[in-house]
Amino acid sequence: WDKATPFIKQLYFIKESGISPWACFTHACHETAFFSKTIGSHNYFGVKTPNKWTGQVVTILTHEYIDGNKTKGYAKFADWDTLEESLVYYANLIKRLYPNSLKCSPCAHCFFDGLVNGQFKWATDPLYAKKLRDLYELLRKEDKVSQCFKENLVQ
After folding, report:
1. CA–CA separation, 40 vs 81, rounded Å?
2. Apex CA 22: angle with CA 18 and CA 24, to 5°?
3. pLDDT tens digits for 38-93?
4. pTM tops 0.90
5. Rounded to the nearest 5°, which phi and psi values hold at 143?
């Protein structure tokens, strides 16, 4: 959890943005395999490069679901110089493209459903929201994580 603590310490901005810090943390844990594999330096959420992206780009092998089949392919992902820049981009992206997530942010389960049930889909995995919900429940029960939140972020 050494890499998780600095992340949790920066979640004050996410909280001020109206997004549940626990939902954001869960999302990052899922996308980074518990902070063991970020994309580039600071892509904690699997954010691909948007059309007019002028920032850093990292190309990696990834998995996508096409017509229900899991496939491998290379994709371009955005990257940032700092954790804070990544979180600011994440919060703004949620506000802009995932209104279903933002409007029910206090409920993490609803937030996760909103990532896949709107005009834009965060992931192609048909079980993505369920995986996030299950991980959230697991993390909430983990004393070490709860203690880290208590010590580093006002809930």
Report:
1. 9
2. 70
3. 999 999 999 999 999 999 999 999 999 999 899 999 999 999 999 999 999 999 99
4. yes
5. -60, -40
